[in-house]
Structure prediction request, 79 residues.
Amino acid sequence: LEEYLQPGMRVLDVGCGAGLLSYGAKLLGAGFVAGADIEEDSCALTRRLAEVPVFQGSADAVRGSFDVVLANIGATVLA
Prediction:
């Protein structure tokens, strides 16, 4: 994240979970950060801890453009 994120960039955190990557992006100066997760509890947690807007649902339904898309998802989930 530190290597790719430039201040002011738009960031999407897919599978945001507790919002750690969202929070990190904010700390690094992202201009806009949003999260997406299928779990209601994860969305609520990210909203509360990272204070970013979160969409509940599949990342396929997200609209808009982002400079950086983050995903802290294990390989077994992606396989």
